[in-house]
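Milestone M4 deliverable, item 7.
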Amino acid sequence: MKKSIVTLAATVLTAMALTSCVAPRPPQIYCRMDSVCAKAGAEACSKNGGVEDGTCAAEEAFARPQAAAEETEWLNDSRDGEKYRTVKIGEQIWMAENLKIKTEGSICNENKQENCDKYGRLYNWPDAMQACPSGWHLPTDDEWAVLEKAVGGSFEEKSVLGMNIVSSSTAGTALKSKGGWSHSKGLFSNEMIIFGNGTDDYGWSALPGGHFTVPPTDYVPGYGAVQIGNPEFTSPGSFGSWWSATEHPNDGRKIYANSRTISSSDGKVHWNAILINGYKGSGLSVRCVQDVVSTTGENQ
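Output delivered:
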């Protein structure tokens, strides 16, 4: 009899766990691994509030700010005939895909055309500054910050190896696409939290296009101009990095510019991530933002 009661209790608890997994969720959430749901079946959870590939289940639902997010007309680039989806977030209109126009200072990740087709081209900073179509431009740090705040990012600043590092918490999760990101456990997080794909709450659809890191050339006494290290690609899947139009404020040589990086290993948007040296000769992705036209008819 006691064994039957225990068995019945276990059955009820399992049913309750599954019920909690499949309970309706608000449409805007991000996932944390729920150990109970994981034991009961992550696949069942994922169909009802988890990420689409079934790797985690939603333990808690976090409301996203209700910034206006609506898809606008397609952007037709007359220079090469490429069409880009665009999205309005708050008062800004952004390209919802990475730029693909071929320039002298751009490259396909790993020199593979299929990476250009999927993730767009990687541009050095001088080309990135000129690459956007007419009526659009490379976003400044301030314009990036407006986007990050609109999607719920709260800004954090800390010192790492003597450098001030800024990041926008949770904004990466809201901006990342729902598929295509590598999955990994957070490096400095509770090991139960699994990151990877985002929720793409606003249709910005960030993809992990990787980057092409080129070390700067420095003057070495007795040797002259020397490039310390070799250029190398970071393969698509783990990182997406985008140029900012804002140059690095403490760079007297004017060879560095700011950037934004989103990683598969957390939900943040990182400003000038350590893994990106910011050298203007490196190759990063480009997202263009639409010019603001003032009441006088002038672009801003």
